Amino acid sequence: MFRPRSIGLLLALATLLIYLPATSCQFINFDDQDYVTDNHVVQNGLTWAGVKWAFMGSHAANWHPLTWLSHMADCDLFRLNPAGPHLVNILFHAMNVALLFALVFRLTKKMWPAAFIAALFAWHPLHVESVAWVSERKDVLSTFFALLTLLSYTRYAHKNSGANSRESVAGIASPAFDYSLAGFFFVLALLSKPMPVTLPVVMLLLDYWPLNRVQGHKLKAAGSASGELSTFNFQLSIIWEKWPFFLLSALSCILTILAQQKTVSTLASIPLYFRLENTLTAYAGYLWKMVWPFDLAIFYPLHSPIALPLIAEAAVLLAGISLIVWRERKSSPWLIVGWLWFLVTLLPVIGLVQVGRQAMADRYSYFPLIGIFLAITFSADGLVARFSFLKKWIISSAILILGICLVLSEKQLSYWRDSESLFTHALAVADSDVAHFCLGLTLQDQNRPTEAMNQYLRTLELDPGSDLAYDNIAKLLDDEGKIDFAARYCQEAVRRKPQSVFAHINFGIMLGKLHRYDEAIHELSVAAQLDASDVRPQFFMGQFLLKQGKNVEAMQHLKAALQIDPDDVQALIFTASVMASEKDQGIRNGASALTLAGRAVKLTGGRQPAALDVQAMACAEMGQYNEAVQIEEEAIKISQAANQGDNLDVLKQRLKRYQSHQPWRESFKEN
Question: In this structure, what are the phi and psi dihedrals at residue 382, rounded to the nearest 5 degrees?
């Protein structure tokens, strides 16, 4: 029963059972839209177009193609049922628990300390966010491959130092094989999330303890037939042997910077001194929340200024711990290894390069806290070795700690059942514009406009420049038929954030609804100048020019939109519909319409009625009426199955025309 494999399996199964309630949680309206619910490319599942999109783009200000592919696979398996992706997250977390146990046990040969570290990692409330949030698939996925990387590296290190050489079987599991396997898993970790860029440093820390490779031991030179390295050369070799890993980290950093360049805060907006202050308090904050995991929330706002006593306390705490672990580095090497593991692995997300407006985040502690767990657990193990009478007390304390973690994790998990519960709790912890805005979105979706309006107004009190809040207030007013008032809020958003592409686009759209097309086109032109890579300004300018009857100019903008993003489904469908049905014969082009419509159908996996509808329209324009009838019937069938009855009458009217061997004609000019 107490064999290592049995312990690892029991830990994984217990974790599965504890987190199983997360399968009843819903998608939330913070990032889940970008990753799944509003992402049509992901919803189409694993397609060649989707694979290309995952590797070539930087959607959601991240480059993590493997994470995108995992979400696509979810959609293939579960469609948009949130239980599926939540279950996948739980499975990865359970596997991470087993892998962590295996790693610590392989490194130290101590089963119960390894089991406690794995259990603490599995059940600590700070880790609920990484598991219960669908968008944080990147967290559990990257950690899965990071742990496999360290396991493979550990096998390599053992064999390369001459230990456990009997593990090699006919050369299949040679040190070179394990080294290559570690590199392979490291690539997969970086493709899942860039945060593991610090993993080569973790390898060096493990070389110090518990692998003890930097204590002057001799080892065989990697790749050499014979010969041993001197102590000095050995010290250099353990650094040099990791150059491929450091190179991969550097490449990942470059790709991440390119992906996040539009979301990284400037030094003018968040000065360096403030970032350093927040770094100190954030490090201390993670330690405090590890010890006292209460009042956990999805968002902790970045408040300025930070109280000087708080900065001083954090600095003293970090300096004190650093001094202690340095002084005890020889007698208790696990202290400095665990401490540096924590500091170094948190470094990419600690706020020196500020992306977003959070001071810290529970999810960022998922992998870094392993270092603190190591330091604490092996310190307790050392005490037991020196003072045997403490054994029962320490075991009782460990059981009590895990029991408290289980209770608090279950409570924290309950907040993730839906957006309203999550952000109501977040506001109870810390008042923030982000939480008010997301709660407003939830209330708006629930058709509770008055409550939603109150949340958006509170958002503006906390962040007067929130163009998103202005836009959503405008939508609420628009729904009430108060378009003039809605336009004023959009105009105010532009005034407060004149460099906001989003604000100019929304103001332009609202002006279009007021039939003030010249003004609308002006706003959209400004948006296009601010960001030439955004497809929306060109797309909406094309629409408004069509309404004015300026068809030739309109087509130029629609084609420009497709040049910016050939895979924009909305632009493909609309442009194809114009080319297939516009009464102006000079604009119609059935062959081009059919090509664009075919691309839209391919991108949507043949499951979106609008894409099929325009493909049928293009077929009819080309005289392919039998094909048009078949495709339109499929569009109607899918629309009925999805209970999308709004456009059914129009689809049926088109079907009758195709059955009569007549193409569909309409004018996009406003009467």
Answer: -65, -40
644/609 Cα distance (integer angstroms): 9
Local structure of residue 358 (DSSP, 8 states): E
| Tens-place pLDDT, residues 595-621 | 999 999 998 889 899 999 999 999 999
Instruction: Report residue 609 as tokens.
Output: 């009625």
As given in the structure block, the two tokens for residue 565 are 């993003």
- What sections of 415-500 are H helices per DSSP? 419-429, 433-445, 449-462, 467-479, 483-496
Answer whether 456's CB lies under 8 Å from 443's CB: no
Going by their DSSP bridges, the two strands 300-301 and 358-360 should be labelled as antiparallel
CA 527/CA 257 separation, integer angstroms: 23
Q: What is the pLDDT of residues 147-178, one digit of tens each?
A: 999 999 999 998 886 544 444 444 456 889 99
Domain boundaries, the chain: 128-262, 274-386, 568-671
Assessment of whether the complete model's pTM goes beyond 0.90: no
CATH class (in words) of the domain with range 568-671: mainly alpha
Distance CA 512, CA 533 (A): 22
Helix axes 391-414, 4-19, angle to 10 degrees: 30
Q: Give me the residue label for tokens 């996009």.
A: 668
Calculate the CA 325 to chain-centre distance. 34
Q: What's the gap between Cα 32 and its chain centre?
A: 9
d(CA 541, CA 559): 11
Cβ atoms within 10 A of the Cβ of 602, count? 16
Contact indicator for 54, 68 with CB cutoff of 8 Å: yes
